[in-house]
Design a protein that fits this description.
Number of strands: 13
CATH architecture of the largest domain: 3-Layer(aba) Sandwich
Oligomer: single chain
Number of helices: 17
Order of helices and strands: EEHEHEHEHHHEHHHHHHEHHEEHEHEEHE
Shape: globular
Distance between the termini: 35 Å
Length: 445
């Protein structure tokens, strides 16, 4: 009988496998997801994770869940681990606000920040086409939106601000141009060179982006041409400030840059909920390492938190449901290094003793776990068990040494969807454009 050791206890494989066999729901078809929707109930926020950014089934199952939440439970916004300017263009498309955008394919194909495949893929084309059809004929305040939560789009956000101000406020444009000029010399390496320069000039462009935010917020009341565009202008200004904080935090190392990023995403979600009204309901798509409560992993030991933890602590009265995903083996889209050519890679069988390994040992069918059913399971409640996390940078040869997050599964999620065998998603770009983005921790997610 195999026994595994963690920092808390010793546990045996048979006990864990039996707990899964006794409590998991077989997931043979979409209809088998009903226990999940029962668990969601009247929750206002549902976060749907993924164990990689390059797996077809994670996108398609999340799409099905999202459609039902929109149609049956009145969810009216989707927020994803993507850049605000790119996702805002898709938002305008699915709401029918930009007649010149003739297809979701054209909008998504313009997503050119590495890793392009995260959102520029056929799976998201299908979702966007559905959202556009769903929104057709609805009043503006009833249309379902699609937004990016991330903080990376410093230059794109400033360019969006300048584009808007050229048409509406020439005086404020000067402040935006000054901030842009300050950052322009550091654009090539997507913020890495800016972080290095901060070691020698600690203030650098901090004052410029803060001044830009203040100027935009002061003038917001006079920007009344399009209420959602006004919201977007302020959001881009906030991104400029927080992106500068993120690059500043890169110098310090440790968890600070991660926390700046997830705090920004949580604050953006809060802004979106307020913008859409007191009855708004949000669906969030992000990697498991963001939506799974960090307190149930070794991330907490490093001083890290994430959007899932923040949502639980700050919105518990509204109902927050966190749904994790995982798989045993298959194929996946990723890159061998930052900015590398997109590759379809083999996803090897999960490491012995991992959560995915235990799920497979309990039977090779897909499974749905509702974590309320596992709170009496000592083996899962009292042990940190490895849970696979594949990032945009991935090498299957080295997976055994670093791609597993020690996890107390029933505390990390409210539900978990296990898919035994999965395949790579279908990118729109055959090759990325080579642009690099800042390294994130852990696993580039």
């Amino acid at each position: 009988m195999r026994r595994y050791f963690t920092k808390e206890a010793t546990w045996n494989e048979a006990e864990a496998v039996n707990a899964i066999m006794e409590n998991a729901y077989p997931l043979h078809s979409k209809a088998d997801l009903q226990p999940l929707f029962d668990r969601i109930g009247d929750a206002r926020i549902v976060m749907l994770g993924e164990a990689s950014h390059g797996t077809h089934e994670y996108y398609t199952w999340r799409t099905h869940i999202s459609k039902r939440l929109i149609e049956e439970k009145g969810f009216n916004l989707m927020a994803v681990e993507g850049d605000w300017p790119d996702c805002y263009r898709l938002n305008r498309f699915v709401k029918g606000y930009n007649p010149g955008s003739k297809s979701a394919f054209n909008v998504l194909h313009s997503f050119n920040r590495w890793p392009t495949w995260m959102w520029a893929n056929w799976e998201i084309v299908a979702l966007a086409d559905w959202l556009q059809k769903h929104n057709t004929g609805l009043a503006a305040n009833q249309k379902v939106g699609f937004y990016g939560l991330d903080v990376y789009s410093l230059w794109e956000s400033m360019e969006s601000i300048m584009q808007y101000l050229r048409k509406t406020d020439i005086a404020a444009l000067k402040v935006a141009e000054e901030a842009f000029r300050c950052f322009e010399p550091y654009r090539k390496e997507e913020g890495t060179s800016y972080a290095r320069a901060l070691q020698f000039v600690p203030e650098l462009c901090q004052n410029e982006v803060v001044d830009l935010l203040k100027e935009v917020q002061k003038r917001l009341p006079q920007y009344n041409s399009d209420y959602e565009n006004v919201f977007s202008v302020e959001q881009n200004a906030l991104i400029s400030v927080n992106a500068e904080k993120y690059y500043r935090a890169m110098i310090q190392g440790g968890p600070h840059s991660w926390n700046v990023r997830d705090r920004h995403m949580a604050d953006t979600l809060e802004r979106l909920l307020k913008f859409h009204g007191k009855n708004s309901k949000a669906i969030v798509w992000e990697h498991n390492t963001h939506i799974g409560d960090a307190r149930a992993t070794d991330m907490a030991d490093e001083g890290m938190y994430n959007i899932g933890e923040l949502a639980r602590t700050e919105h518990h009265d509204k109902g927050v449901v966190l749904v994790g995903f995982g798989s045993f083996n298959g194929t996946v889209i990723a890159g061998k290094s930052w900015g590398a050519t997109t590759q379809q890679m083999k996803l090897p069988e999960a490491k012995n003793g991992s959560i995915e390994y235990l799920m497979h040992k309990a039977g090779n069918e897909n499974k749905l776990l509702i974590m309320d059913d596992f709170i009496k399971s000592d083996v899962f409640m009292e042990n940190h068990i490895g849970h696979r996390a594949v990032g945009v940078v991935y090498n299957p040869k080295y997976e055994q040494y670093g791609n597993y997050v020690p996890t107390v599964l029933p505390l990390r999620y409210d539900a978990f969807i296990y898919l035994d065998n999965t395949r790579a998603l279908y990118p729109l770009h055959i090759q990325p454009d080579g642009l690099q983005m800042p390294e994130t921790y852990p696993f580039g997610v």
